[in-house]
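Q: Okay, next protein. This is BAR domain-containing protein from Dissostichus mawsoni. I've checked the sequence twice, so it should be correct. Can you predict the 3D structure?
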Amino acid sequence: MSLFFFAGCDTAGEPSTLRDMAEMGKGVTAGKLAINVQKRLTRAQEKVMQKLGKADETRDVAFEEMVSNFNKQMIEGSKLQKDMKSYLLAVKTMHDASRRLQDCLAEMYEPDWFGKEEMDALTEDTDTLWLDYHQNITDKSLNTLDSYLTQFPDIKARIAKRDRKMAEEELGKAQKIFEELNVELQDELPVLFDNRVGVYVNTFQGLAGHQEKFHKEMGKVRKLFRRVLLN
């Protein structure tokens, strides 16, 4: 008996067992190739997502800085508005005190004394200067601040809405609204932040100009008062 056992042959003359093994080998190789390709695709997708995530993270950091500047700007503007109102209240208090002193002087100044009519006219001029000073600061400085600060509530509400839509977007909702708000705010916030310089400059320049004019005109009136009192 032969020591070798031959498997049956198919019609092509090739041993069926060897052919089956070859086919199995091809299947294993193809399977490994598919797995390797899938792994590479997965890694590539992960890298893309990482890059996108980093880009989103960079944009979020930049936006958070804009929001931080906005909040700081809003606090500064509100404080300036509050202090300007306090200053105007002090001006009104000084005006009232000045008017009482002038009225007291007018009452004590007897009709037959020198310069009675001029004294009464100077009292009216003093009152008018105080009124104009208060009104000019209100019109040129306080109203400018008030107008400037009217922008903030709307933008603050839109920032809050953006944050809500961002949370909803993570759940697969409101993506379009979020993107629109995001673009609008990223355009508007830097412009608003830069505009604060012009507002502050105009506010304090106006205040300084009104102070200078007021004290200059008041100085002239005071000199006339002294001249009348010394004669």
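A: Here is a summary of the prediction. The chain has one domain: 66-230. Residues 1-9 have pLDDT under 50 and may be disordered.
Q: Noted. On to the next one.
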